[in-house]
Amino acid sequence: MYSYIKGTIEELYLDHIVIDNNNIGYRINVSSNTLKDLQLGNMAKIYTKLIVREDDMSLCGFSTKEELEMFELLTSVSKIGPKVGLGILSFASPRQLGAYIVSEDIAKMSKAPGVGKKTAERIILELKDKIDKQNIEFEPTLLSQTPVAVSQDEAVDALIALGYSTAEAKEAVDKCKKTGLNTEDIIKKSLSYLMSQSLR
Q1: Cα-flanking dihedrals φ and ψ of residue 131, to 5°?
Q2: What is the pTM of this model?
Q3: Residue 196: how many CB atoms within 10 A of its CB?
Q4: Each residue of 82-117: pLDDT tens digit?
Q5: Domain range 4-62, its CATH number among 2.40.160.90, 3.40.1280.10, 1.10.10.60, 2.40.50.140
Q6: 186 with 176: CB under 8 angstroms?
């Protein structure tokens, strides 16, 4: 019904905003990721999803199409409603969530509010084949937080976890490995190489 609403941010709360469009104030439920992109009194374009229930109608809003798309994926999973979907998007960015799902990181997914181990397993099972593997932020899940020594095997394993075949992963790493690069750098360069090959 509504693709987006463009207007002035009149009110900001912990879990929702009020945006004025032609003197009509729309109350829109948002994640903290969207909230941090908004400022009181500023113009904003909010992508929206209308939620219709027997006893209620409400709007969920997102500062980017990327977040809206992840919300739609999350709420397509059984027993994941709008409130839990927004809670998950407040826990991590869409790209980070994509990485958790693709790498089957149940431990990280289960830390999201309203998500236990069983729900995390269900999210991963239902969505791992629907995630855009070229639009994820893999560092938080596949790599340690501190620099590590170059490991060709780790880089290959990470690419396989992202959905590439063993042959593709090995070819990309062989092309991109250089002395002085850590695993993270090798993976980034390998992903760029694989994406450039797919566009040919």
Answers
A1: -80, 135
A2: 0.67
A3: 9
A4: 999 999 999 999 999 998 998 888 998 999 988 989
A5: 2.40.50.140
A6: yes
CB 109 within 8 A of CB 120: yes
- The one-letter amino acid code at 161 reads A
User: pLDDT tens-digit profile of 116-172?
Assistant: 899 999 999 999 888 877 777 654 444 433 343 445 677 788 878 777 888 888 888
Question: According to CATH, where is 2.40.50.140 located in the chain?
Answer: 4-62
CA angle 108, 106, 160 (to 5 degrees): 100
- Is pLDDT at 61 greater than 80 in this prediction? yes
CATH topology classification for 143-198: Helicase, Ruva Protein; domain 3 (1.10.8)
